[in-house]
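$ run holo --ligand "1,5-di-O-phosphono-alpha-D-ribofuranose" --emit tokens
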Amino acid sequence: MMLVNETAEKIKRMEIRGAGRIARAAAESLRDHAQALSVRDINAFRSDIDKAAQVLVATRPTAVSLPNAVHIVLAGLEEAKTTAEARDGVIRRADAFIDSSWHAVGQIAQIGARHIRDGDTILTHCNSEAALACIIEAHRSGKKIEVFATEVRPRNQGLVTIRTLNEAGIRTNFIVDSAVRSFINDVDLVIVGADAVTVNGAVVNKIGTSQVAHSAAEARVNVIVAAETYKFAPRTIIGELITIEERPPQEVLPDEVARTLPHVTVRNPAFDVTPADYIDMIVTEAGAIPPQMAYVIIREYLGWGIEEFHKTFEITTRHEE
Ligand code: RI2
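-- output --
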């Protein structure tokens, strides 16, 4: 059983991390919470579930997979007539989301692997389940590939990546983040994951991704982003920006060192934005698309069209009047 507060703490501390994993963990803990909740009144049930959802969404602001997963799990809660119906709905939708999330990663692996050629050297940054699934599937299908994996300061997610690649038996070079440009000419393809994709096809991913993409563009190396459809950010349709999480300075510099440097401020943004111009393709479970087609994914697969927002605005305006 996954408790909401415990799950939220683990997501904050990054014990549970990775945009896909945090989305599934949120869905799972909402499901378990709904199952255990013993209130009889439908309104009390709704407000308790809403509170739990808010606690989860507040943990990390950037990965849009988290609010998207919560939105999917809670869809229909308002229409439910009884507590039993509301509870069953949450459980059913959470299970369906978790299943479809795993299925999506599998589909992305199949589609992404087709874009990896025999003999390719691939560079990846951070630790993305979706990106690694493409690489591992290409290897499994018999293509001879080699990987460059970055260290990923300050949280060293690169260590998780090289363990996974090593386990799969893939030849891997482990490099510090600042060595990307030195090796980019040895690389045929960059594959990374995403925490969020905006309506104009910009990709928000681990800090350093935009530098990697910039080096790749300069060296004419293609960049593929592996992202499930629930990583696309509906609210960017109305111009909302993705909040970039800034994490504690202690992740970069221990307090005892920082204390000796009173004029120094540590800045620790966890993510950066790579513009669509630096991305050749986004591989989703619905197919491989150019980044400029992001709106289609938001509309067709997440069910948010521009009209939805207009409707919301109309309702708000009417209330205000
Ligand atoms: P998957 C991670 O964020 C990385 O930025 C990674 O590229 C992205 O989520 C997507 O990962 P963090 O939680 O969903 O390490 O593909 O900050 O696993």
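-- notes --
The chain has a mean pLDDT of 95.
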